[in-house]
Amino acid sequence: MIFKGMAARSVFSAKPGQNSGGEAARHARRRASRKKFSFSKLVFFIALVFLFLPLVVLVISSFNDSASMRWTGFSLRWYQRLLTERQLWISFWNSIFIAISSATAATIIGTIAAIGVSFYRFRARGYVRTISFLPMVLPDIILGVSLAIFFAGVGIPLGLTTVFIAHTTFNLPFVFLLVTARLDEFDFSIIEAAHDLGATERQTLFKVTLPFCMPGILAGFLTAITLSLEDFVVTFFVAGPGASTLPVFIFSAITRRGGITPLISALSVVMIIGTVILAILLRNFLKHIAAK
Q1: For 30, how many CA atoms within 13 A lie in the half-sphere containing its CB?
Q2: What tens digit of pLDDT does each residue of 248-270 get?
Q3: pLDDT of residue 6
Q4: 157 vs 7, higher pLDDT
Q5: Residue 74, beta-bridge partner list
Q6: Cα separation of 227 and 171, whole Å?
Q7: Rounded to an integer, what distance in angstroms lies between the CA atom of residue 273 and that of residue 292?
Q8: What is the spatial distance between Cα 255 and Cα 260, in angstroms, rounded to a whole number?
Q9: Is the pLDDT confidence value at 11 over 60?
Q10: How far is CA 206 from CA 104, 176, 181, 209, 268, in A?
């Protein structure tokens, strides 16, 4: 009886919502203290500064009137000089040509290889899957040296042709991987249904298989273009006289002039703006396709 009375007094003496209110207040104080300082936010801020501070310095130096890093005044002469730098534009168009042509070749070969490996069973199927990933895991310098030795051994002179072959070689595994990943979700009963409706192998390929693989094909093509445009190591070993791409030209300009000049900074700013515009246009284009 005594114990029941004490329990009843303790229950009725407590005001409704008092405990819940105290818990809510403690949680609010904890959230407020977390908002004042958060280690994750500090790390995030440091990472942003580490990534974007060099870009800010690059943009500022591109408007510097002096060729040194010492600020002497605002000027647009480095952007004007970009229009008259003949070797730069030759390297730029070489990069565009090699990127589009090698990405197209790698996409065609990689798509055909992915469909063949996924749809057909043959003895060397596992070997083909394994060997196709070697260019992805090998260091670029090993791939570049091996390709240069190969071209010298078979007597192919270094030039745009060797750069095209090299870029197609290291782009091929990425296209193969992306298209194969798409085909792993493929329902093979669709092929049987198409055959039952009278479709030939060619009609099934172009009207069923390739439309299903199109997201992987587009992803592989865009990845191949990106990898080709930014590649330096492999291109450095296989490019001959007059066949340098834009990364090789930038490296040569930096080593020849003893550092990054405002001309290279201006070129980098133009490339950053072009990349942002292209990414926005591509994003809107993909959203438009997805909406359909």
Answers
A1: 6
A2: 888 887 777 666 678 888 888 88
A3: 46
A4: 157
A5: 64
A6: 7
A7: 29
A8: 9
A9: no
A10: 17, 18, 19, 6, 41
Q: Which residues contact 232 (CB under 8 A, 6 or more apart)?
A: 247, 248, 251
Region 52-56 average pLDDT = 86
- pLDDT at position 103 over 90: yes
CA distance 262 to 69: 8
Partnered with residue 64 across adjacent β-strands are 74
Residue 163 in this model has a pLDDT that exceeds 90: yes
Say if residue 67's pLDDT is above 90.
Answer: no
Alpha-carbon distance of 16 to 13, in angstroms, equals 9
Largest CA distance in the chain: 106
Tokens standing for 107?
């996409």
User: Nearest Cα to 220, choosing from 177, 280, 184, 185?
Assistant: 177
User: H or E segment at 257?
Assistant: helix 246-257
**Does pTM surpass 0.90?**
no
Q: Which of 177, 148, 181, 178 is nearest to 163 (CA)?
A: 148
Distance CA 114, CA 172 (A): 10
Give the SS3 label for residue 288: helix
Chain-centre distance of CA 224, in angstroms? 9
